[in-house]
Amino acid sequence: MTATAGERSGSARLDSLTSWHADWNGLRVAVLGLSVTGFSVADTLAELGADVLVVTERADEEYGRLLPVIGARLWAGQLDAVPEELRDFDPEVVVASPGFAPGHPLVAWAREAGIALWGDIELAWRVRDKVVRPDGSPADWILVTGTNGKTTTTRLTATMLVAGGLRAAPVGNIGTPVLDAVRDPSGFDALVVELSSHQLWYLGLQEGPEPLSPYAAVCLNLADDHLEWHGSFEAYREAKAHVYDNTRVACVYNKADAATRRMVEDAEVVEGARAIGFDLGVPGPSDLGIVERLLVDRAFLEDRRTSALELTTLEELAQLGLAAPHIVANVLAAAALARSLDVAPAAIHDALRDFRLDPHRIEVVARHEGVTWVDDSKATNPHAAASSLAAYPGAVWVVGGLLKGVDISELVAARGAQAKAAIVIGIERAAVVSAFSRHAPAVPVFEVDADETEEVMPRVVELAAGVARDGDIVLLAPAAASFDQFASYADRGERFAAAVRQRIGTGAGDDDDAAADPARRGH
To answer: Residue 331 gets which letter from DSSP?
Structure first.
């Protein structure tokens, strides 16, 4: 089909919009969604002089109040069909918040109508030069994705870069929108950008003249997740693989996960970009790994054939609460990214000394009468829960929630039989119970059938306390999303912690730290 003169003109204008200093004035942009990301998009575009219409089902009260202040308009209502107000607006670009799936009616309409469809990351890349470094260049971008470990690795990398003397910030899916960072007047040397598969799917649609080209990128791992959003595992994998597109210096991948290696092998990168592997084994040249309990770099040194640079030790990580195998892998991945920017090994060591995991990530809630209670509510899919169970074999396992279209049977078959007991929560309990009956029939299984959110965790703790004995771990690693019964994974974890403390009558534990440190328990 031949493009009309108007379509060619519109495309030419969009191709010219690759700088903050380009002419964005009057560009008609529809923004889908009004969460923190949607507002950052609307605020940026309004500042650029674009004509902005925000379309959302529900408007956050504060954001809704601010939109007319910044010069944007709002339409709120049901989005099961394209609103007439949106059709009449006739947008030249639609910028969708990450929650809008490929099959959403508004996304489908924009694609069928041939309207440019961006995510917030595409917009942020185009305007990244608002604040530049002394040499006139914008901040380098380091991209982080994976089914699990994204946030921890993003924070670790940013912490290491700062310790190395760079102005760096963790942004993106981690919480702070990238658009807020690129407009920060203080400026940065590097942005460590956590990307969800949703954001990467939108990036994969782009065919502009200056596509996103990160300095370095990593996909930490790949397992079934968000299948209800993408439609299939193949589509999910394809979205994740976009993290490596046009990488300039280092494509970091997980040697223990063949899928990430294949992504690097298949990626279109800038000539000269290197593949850098990491895992918990002995590293080869161009890898990071472990030698005699030392974390070492054999990638970023001249004599990497016969030498290695020490970064830290497993004993030091254990003292810092970072010894669980999947956390050690995150440390190695972050170190690879930081080393690609010439951060010294000593700076990486110093950064780790002051680093603490976020709440709800293998967080010890309490220790009482020899029982350790661990909150890993962030384990919202089977892959994440498998890592927790590997760190704490034999635990009383609190599992269940919203499975997001993922079959939990493989996890139960691989790890469930090692559990001392299973306490099953969530609206999809039947699938979990069935998996145990087929794959781990000897494990005692208890269902929590409480209808009210306030009743769930007290009942969980009551059941767990009846099973756990001196030396045992009670592990909340749900392998599922939380939205069936809780406001968020954080809410789920906080309610678990509150129920534990309520039962034992304390706000903190009373036993030795070694009880909850998998490295120090010898597992």
So the answer is: H
Contact yes or no for 496/448 (Cβ under 8 A): no
Distance CA 433, CA 12 (A): 57
Tally Cβ neighbours within 10 Å of residue 94.
24
Report, in angstroms and rounded to the nearest whole number, the Rg of the chain calculated over CA atoms. Answer: 24
pLDDT (tens place) for every residue of the chain, 523 residues total: 444 444 545 688 999 999 999 999 999 999 999 999 999 999 999 999 999 999 999 988 899 999 999 999 999 999 999 999 999 999 999 999 999 999 999 999 999 999 999 999 999 999 999 999 999 999 999 999 999 999 999 999 999 999 999 999 999 998 899 999 999 999 999 999 999 999 999 999 988 889 999 999 999 999 876 677 777 889 999 999 999 999 999 999 999 999 999 999 999 999 999 999 999 999 999 999 999 999 999 999 999 888 999 999 999 999 998 999 999 999 999 999 999 999 999 999 999 998 998 889 889 999 999 999 999 999 999 989 999 999 899 999 999 999 988 899 999 999 999 999 999 999 999 999 999 999 999 999 999 998 799 999 999 999 999 999 999 999 999 999 999 999 999 999 999 999 999 999 854 444 433 333 333 333 3
Q: Is this model's pTM higher than 0.70 or not? A: yes
- Indicate the burial class of 269 (C-beta count within 10 angstroms; 0-12, 13-18, 19 or more): buried
3-state secondary structure of 399: strand
Residues 6 or more apart from 41 whose CB is under 8 A from it? 31, 95, 97, 120, 123, 177, 179
Q: What is the 3-state secondary structure (H, E, C) of 247-285?
A: CCCEEEEECCCHHHHHHHHHCCCCCCCEEEEECCCCCCC
Pairwise CA distance, residues 510 & 391, whole Å: 21
